[in-house]
Amino acid sequence: MATRTNSIAANLERVRERVGRAADRSGRKVDQITIVAVSKTFPSEVIRAAHEAGLRHFGENRIQEFEAKHAQVNGFVDSIWHFIGHLQSNKAQRAVHLFDRIDSVDSISLAQKLDSAAAAADKRLPVLIEVRLSHEATKSGVAEGDLAPLADAIGRFPRLKLRGLMTIPPYSDDAEKARFYFRKLRELRDGLREQLGVSLPALSMGMSHDFEIAIEEGATEIRVGTALFGERAKR
Fold this sequence. Notes:
nine-stranded parallel beta sheet, TIM Barrel, alpha/beta
């Protein structure tokens, strides 16, 4: 356990150094940027080691997988659990039970199910809208043209709190190619702020290979897995 914690702590220090340099380039403060450790596919022992190293935000993308880990990590009362994958409406109730935030709302029907589940659980649920900015068939998220109606609808659900937007750009070995998508998400967020009169403080964008570009374009949350935990085993 100590060896694993030390390894993750060293990786975290390198990630924080990268975050710091990107923040400096964009005239921002490091404490404006949250590292969400993407612990999907990794066992609970790795999450424990990451928590020991100082990480507090964790991202998972499969309900059934996290249900198996939940009992082992539920004692981390200071941790915040983000659901970051595509969520089927029929799993909304389970997601609300397991997670503190849902970062990938992409339809009014899902928002409605989450609102009902949050009411049943007597909780207020922070959410992000996932926006699909590319034409990749494998990407989930709401289309740009449907973003404003979805944001407006979420604002009318009493148990949901819309915090901002999330996107995943097409993968490229050249991180600079992601800049267009990150900038576009920020512009969409700024437009929604003006249109709806809400703050929308969160922009979740950027992963291990491109989060510096995302920070330069305004990311407040970056989702980092490989840079912290190493390569995932092939499924």
